């Protein structure tokens, strides 16, 4: 079954630095989405990249997708303390109901 | 901006009791989902619902679970006889096209 796995599991950086998180998956996908989750809270949709796209930007977020390597990266530039959260990638397939398969997530801590 | 809402935010119940978790998806969305996240673990798919029927369900979604869309706005998840291992955060999600939008979750604690 397809599976998103993020690395690193935890990342701690200084405010203002860039944060890069990676995600790998196993099977062919239709789309890949990134979500943020503040501790004990809901999932906030950040950005979606389709399987025929290679890069996408949204504000301080940059997502890349390499379908040949079955991997994606999320870059947050000029990090802020408010970016402290867990970040998850989620993949879906063309078939079926497009259920999302989530990775374990990267816990990002931005130190002031 | 429209959003998915869920109630209650926290539910505490005794093992063996029935619980109903409620969700109001975004009004023009057509596809509805339930996911759960056990503390410290990844988010797991439970069930998807489209056109008033289940379109896909996971192995977790056994006979103890059921979903319903009783009217044009609500989408409910019922657990008939809760077990300790059902303790988790339950998320409802909905979509119209590709992006799935999640509610804030219901934290279910089974004692």
Topology, element by element:
The complex is a heterodimer of chains A (about 110) and B (about 110).
Chain A: E1 5-7, E2 10-14, E3 19-24, E4 31-37, E5 43-50, E6 55-58, E7 61-66, E8 71-76, E9 85-92, E10 101-102, E11 106-111
Parallel strand pairs in A: 2-11
Antiparallel strand pairs in A: 1-3, 3-8, 4-5, 4-9, 6-7, 7-8, 9-10, 9-11
Chain B: E1 5-7, E2 10-13, E3 19-24, E4 31-37, E5 43-50, E6 53-57, E7 65-68, E8 75-79, E9 88-95, E10 101-102, E11 106-110
Parallel strand pairs in B: 2-11
Antiparallel strand pairs in B: 1-3, 3-8, 4-5, 4-9, 5-6, 7-8, 9-10, 9-11
Q: Which residue ranges of chain B are poorly predicted, with pLDDT under 50 across at least 5 consecutive positions?
A: none
Largest sheet of chain B: 7 strands, mixed
* Largest sheet, strands/sense/barrel of chain A: 6 strands, mixed
Radius of gyration of chain B: 13 Å
First-to-last CA distance of chain B: 37 Å
Number of strands of chain B: 11
Report helical residue fraction of chain A: under 10%
Average pLDDT across residues of chain A? 90
Q: Termini separation of chain A (Å)?
A: 40 Å
What's the SSE pattern of chain B?
EEEEEEEEEEE
Gyration radius of chain A, to the nearest Å?
A: 13 Å
Structural class of chain B: mainly beta
- Shape estimate of chain B: globular
Largest interface: A-B, 24 and 26 residues
Alpha-beta content class of chain A = mainly beta
Number of helices of chain B: 0
What percent of residues of chain B are in strands? over 45%
Beta percentage of chain A is over 45%
